[in-house]
Amino acid sequence: MQKTLKKHGTWIGKWTFVLAATGSAVGLGNIWGFPYKAGTEGGAAFVLIYLLCIVAIGVPIMISEILIGRRSGNSPINAMKKSAIDSGASSLWQLVGWTGIIAGVLILSFYSVIAGICLNYIFIAASPNELITSSEQFGQVISSPTNLLIWHTVFMFLTLLIVSAGVEDGIGRMVKILMPLLGFLLLFMVIYGAINGAFLEALSFLFAPDFSNVGTDTFLSAMGQAFFSMSLGMGSIMAYGAYMPKEQEIVSTSFSVGSLDTLVAILAGLAIFPIIFAFNLEPGSGPGLVFVSLLSAFNQMEFGQLIGPIFFILLSIAALSSSISILEPGVAYLAEEEFLTRKQSAIVISILCWVIGIGTATGFNIFSVVDSSGESINPFLNTMELISVQILQPLGGMLIAIFIGWFMNESLIKNEIPQINPFLYSLWRFFIKYVAPLSVAFIFISQII
Ligand code: PHE
């Protein structure tokens, strides 16, 4: 017998769910991760494969997560449990919710440190130090554990504040202000790049594919990026789905969120690469692309001291609307089981993320190691990413696809998407039963070997 669970709020207004889910999807993954991966993986060929992955894996899994979440109205653990019990399947499917919460805690621990660096850069870009290069500047920022910890604390605290305020007061209100602002700032940067940067060069880099250098790792990297960017496989979208009003259409909403997420990644590329090429910077410089290259561009350009901080405010806002969704599945679970109040749950999980984040903050300096090619790496960050992003997220996504494709009662599924066109439904069933789980399994296996 299942006990009655505490009810959460529902988002009011047609656009709130779309805004919140887009806020979750759009973050460091799009604006920091996508351009740097497009840069290192050779540009347009990567972009094309990425788009394919969004359509073939991302959108079908997003439909599934929203559907399971909305149907039960509970946090991912209980949503999976309820759907499994109602379908006559084992209640052990709730383990998918648990792995999601573990993944979320690990992701947020390092996400907050990187987002903290973005917050720090708002001020660095506003008053640049002309005596040092931007890569020396970046080195200085990450060499101080105290500095990283202070900004990590500030970012974690902001996340905690919003999440503890609850669904309607906190997240709902926040995204209504944040997302349009984000779109506005990004468009501004693209227009700036079109007028002042090497825009045509950027266009051909991003959209004229050269398949000569495409290997299996390009596919793997593009698939992984699609997964992380759409916030899938760890319960964030499922948790938000629980607050989606019943009359809203799941399938078209998933397409909207997927398109907006992709649009922002591409706009980020269009904002960043014209500047990179105009200043003869290296597009393949890796994870430091945003921090090192853009700062040097901002330092040289007219009004850079204004545009630079605007860019890093944009990045921090995007990171914040993602981080609140990473925290949500765990907080919603503890609150609905009434183990703790919503505020207490948010505090407990935030402290946990903050403590684990100390590893990433010190991994940049005290515990950094030098690899065989002489590059300095952060072993803690790499381990956290490996476990959460490369193992737990794909595993969670694959299990959700297998559950909804092979174990969940089809009449329960159809009840949630009554208006769906039969052809689209069969297409989705095919992708969720075969294409998505097999592709994710492929990513997973190739990461092991
Ligand atoms: N999608 C977010 C980004 O692109 C990160 C994220 C991952 C959010 C997992 C929620 C869950 O930055």
TrEMBL record:
The protein's name in its UniProt record: Sodium:neurotransmitter symporter family protein
GO CC aspect terms: membrane
Highest taxon above the source species: Bacteria
Subcellular location, record wording: Membrane
CDD domains recorded: SLC6sbd_Tyt1-Like
UniProt keywords, alphabetically: Membrane, Transmembrane, Transmembrane helix, Transport
Stretches that traverse the bilayer: 12-32, 44-70, 91-124, 148-167, 179-199, 219-243, 255-279, 310-334, 346-367, 387-409, 430-448
UniProt key word Protease: no
Annotated membrane topology: Multi-pass membrane protein
